[in-house]
Design a protein that fits this description.
This protein is mostly helical. It has one domain. The chain is built from 11 helices and no strands. Helix 3 runs antiparallel to helix 6 and helix 3 packs parallel to helix 7.
Amino acid sequence: MTRTWQITRALMVAGLLETVRRKDVYVVLILSALLTLGAAAFRVFGVQGLEIFVKDVAFSAVGIMSTVLTILIAARQIPEELQRRTIYPLMARPITRGQLLLGKWVTATLTAGVAFLLLALANLVLLVSLGITLKPIFVQYLLLKLLGIAWLSALVIALSVYLTPPATITIALILAFGSGAFGRLLLMAHWEHGLDALWLNLLYGILPHYDYFDMSKKVVFDWDLAPWGVLLAMAGYAVLSSTAWLFVGWLRFRKQTL
């Protein structure tokens, strides 16, 4: 375990330095600046009576941008190592493919998580500058979104060892933005058979549910704090599901010819 943590930490530091070199942080800062400029436009006309609309637009923008950034960051972790052949010096060291996959997942999760927090902070400053306050459920929104980023990073990394980078990004975007719609369509298509059918519940449970990690609408409409037991259950779901995705990726990666 200590050896795995040392390898993961080394890969994480290298990944963060690579992110700085690729100027991904600048992209996040530019997006944050655009959010601020958007707030300036609202300030000209005032937001009296438009608080819910402004919050909805702001949180939707943060959700879309953080999801796309997470997918792009995670999708390049393994393929770029193969393309640049930097994976060979890594594998020449006493490191297993499972440890490499785990390290890349931690790197993607941390990098995307930091990017999301920067966007969320810019969003908070934007709303406060407009005189719009947020309830404590905003903290739960942050925590649940970070769990979702970890879950999504595991899914994308698993896909990246089976598919080409463009296919990985395309499928991941469809699953991330369409996960809620898929579940609703499934339930609507079979409502006449009874929603308590075992096969229906199993199929619904197997489907990816990135939408579970989105509390933005609850923040927009100023809900009270959700029970912390629910967040604990979601943390368990994120851990189990992420582990399953990484295991699926490892099954392919361990036999892949480098």
